[in-house]
Design a protein that fits this description.
By secondary structure, the protein is α+β, with helices and mostly antiparallel strands. The protein is about 20% helix and about 40% strand.
């Protein structure tokens, strides 16, 4: 039984599997018949790119690739016996992972659908659009009783 992770709570995890693969995913671990099951959502693997630039320099990059590249599934179940260790993603890796998922889903990271934008309201200091206040100022300026 996996007991060093809170069960039935979502988290961003890194899973080292018995076959050597390192899988990153949003996950939840549950208990079923005295066995822990890891439900992985949108799992990816790290893809490292090395490109020689010159004799002494190498450019390195890190990206992600889908774990099951030919599947359209979003969720996968991994049994406890197939997991060597589990770690949580650092905040930086989590942001890279979420950005990858957004671009794979067809959203630009800067779009409002990407989830990084919050609609402002009065509690945040939002009192109207620039266009609304431009019209208001024009109305005040053009008023007959304006000195």
């Amino acid at each position: 039984m996996i007991n060093h992770v809170k069960h039935d709570e979502d988290f961003f995890g890194i899973f080292k599997l018995t076959n050597g693969e390192e899988v990153l995913a949003k996950a939840v671990i549950t208990q079923d018949n005295n066995e822990s099951l890891c439900f992985l959502q949108d799992p990816v693997m790290v893809h490292v790119v090395n490109k020689p630039m010159s004799e002494n320099k190498v450019m390195r990059g890190v990206g992600f690739v889908k774990w099951q590249q030919l599947s359209d599934e979003e969720f996968f179940v991994v049994k406890e016996k197939d997991v060597v260790c589990i770690a949580t993603m650092s905040r930086e890796v989590q942001m890279l992972y979420e950005s990858y998922l957004m671009t794979e889903g067809g959203y630009e990271p800067s779009s409002s659908k990407a989830g990084y934008h919050v609609k402002a309201d009065k509690s945040m200091g939002y009192i109207g659009t620039t266009e609304d206040y431009r019209k208001l100022f024009e109305k005040i300026f053009k008023a007959k009783n304006n000195p």
